[in-house]
Design brief:
With 318 residues, the chain is α/β, with parallel strands linked by helices. It has two domains: 3-138 and 256-299, Rossmann fold (3-Layer(aba) Sandwich), CATH 3.40.50; 139-253, Phosphofructokinase domain (Rossmann fold). Helices cover 42% and strands 19% of the residues. It contains eleven helices and eleven strands. The strands form two sheets. A seven-stranded mixed sheet has the order 3-2-1-4-5-10-11, with helices on both faces. Strand 4 (96-101), helix 5 (103-114) and strand 5 (118-123) form a beta-alpha-beta unit. The longest helix has 22 residues, at 139-160. The radius of gyration is 22 Å and the shape is elongated. The structure holds 6-O-phosphono-beta-D-fructofuranose (F6P). 6-O-phosphono-beta-D-fructofuranose (F6P) is lined by residues 11, 72, 102, 125-127, 169-171, 222, 252.
Length: 318
């Protein structure tokens, strides 16, 4: 192998740049040229491909977003789109590829592997929703952003004895809400894994209020409720004033944390080493603090219920 391609796909995640830097530096170490594919799979189909040198990736490890840009390509989801992508790879003489992205992006990587391209995946998503890895790149930074925002909301909630509902991202995974609450960020949490109905939330809030805790934070994962309806329900049932804050895209930006930079660096170098050693169709991950790799099909593995963490939360927030 003397040339490899790298792309970022799906929602951007802080730390993707550190992963790109690691891929380029490691590839150059093994005398392999790197081609940067712009805008994910769509850029691949459209042939937006340029050489990436070591100097292109200096001073990017601390930057959020992705210098390669990203997309969610519907064209690539179709067989015809993937065939076009394959042709472009052949034209550029690229037979090895590192794909950095979430579950959908790694699914795309699996398809390219089936078409004969040597592919290694790197999990890059703030959602932390892939079971085969304890952490994906971006999750830690986003968690810190969420906690910083929540800290500010708590200051004003305390001053006004107020209840706020905070909606965090995560798609269909409750890790951002769960870990925020574990880190002291909220009193009541509802996640896809442990969904609370309106009445349960009200009764938890009511018992906290009657025990003297008048400022309370309800953290919920996105896509679960009609927020206006939830706010109105709590206000009417408990006769209190409630505010709602959707943290939104602020969660995806910002400089990656040290943890994400180190994780991305380890994963980027490992991805190149796997290709050098003849592996394909695998994705890198982290389990019990060790960098691991599994077949790409593991990205679809069902998430184990994080029972230990929810139990911990119950002990803290009973
Ligand atoms: O997967 C990352 C993520 O930020 C999710 O948390 C969120 O649901 C989704 O992307 C938003 O996607 P889009 O950028 O396409 O609106």
């Amino acid at each position: 192998m003397n040339k490899l391609g790298v792309l970022t796909s799906g929602g951007d995640a802080p730390g993707m740049n550190a992963a790109i830097r690691a891929v380029v530096k490691a590839a150059n170490y093994y005398h392999i040229d790197v081609m940067g594919i712009q805008c994910g799979y769509q850029g691949l189909i459209d042939g937006e491909i340029h050489r990436l040198t070591s100097s292109d990736v200096e001073n990017i490890a601390d930057r959020g977003g992705t210098i390669l840009k990203t997309s969610r390509s519907s064209e690539f989801m179709e067989e015809a789109g993937r065939k076009k992508a394959l042709k472009v790879l052949k034209n550029f003489d690229i037979n090895s590829l590192v794909v950095i992205g979430g579950e959908g992006s790694l699914k795309g990587a699996e398809k390219l592997h089936e078409l004969g391209i040597n592919v290694i995946g790197i999990p890059g998503t703030i959602d932390n929703d892939m079971a085969y890895t304890d952490y994906s790149i971006g999750f830690d930074t986003t968690l810190n952003t969420v906690l910083e925002c929540i800290g500010k909301i708590k200051d004003t909630d305390f001053s006004h004895d107020k209840t706020t509902i905070v909606e965090v991202m995560g798609r269909y995974c409750g890790d951002l809400a769960l870990y925020s609450a574990l880190a002291g960020g909220g009193e009541i949490i509802s996640t896809p894994e442990r969904k609370l109905d309106f009445d349960t939330m009200c009764s938890k809030l009511s018992s906290r209020i009657s025990s003297g805790k008048k400022d309370n934070l309800v953290i919920i994962t996105e896509r679960m409720y009609d927020l206006q309806e939830l706010q109105r329900y709590i206000e009417e049932k408990l006769n209190i004033s409630v505010r709602t804050t959707v943290l939104g895209f602020i969660q995806r930006g910002g400089n990656p944390s040290a943890f994400d930079r180190v994780l991305a660096t380890k994963m980027g170098v490992t991805a190149v080493e796997l290709l050098v050693n003849g592996h394909s169709g695998h994705t890198v991950g982290m389990k019990e603090n060790k960098i691991i790799h599994r077949e790409l099909e593991y990205v679809h593995a069902e998430r184990a219920d994080k029972q230990d963490k929810y139990r911990l939360l119950e002990t803290l927030l009973h």
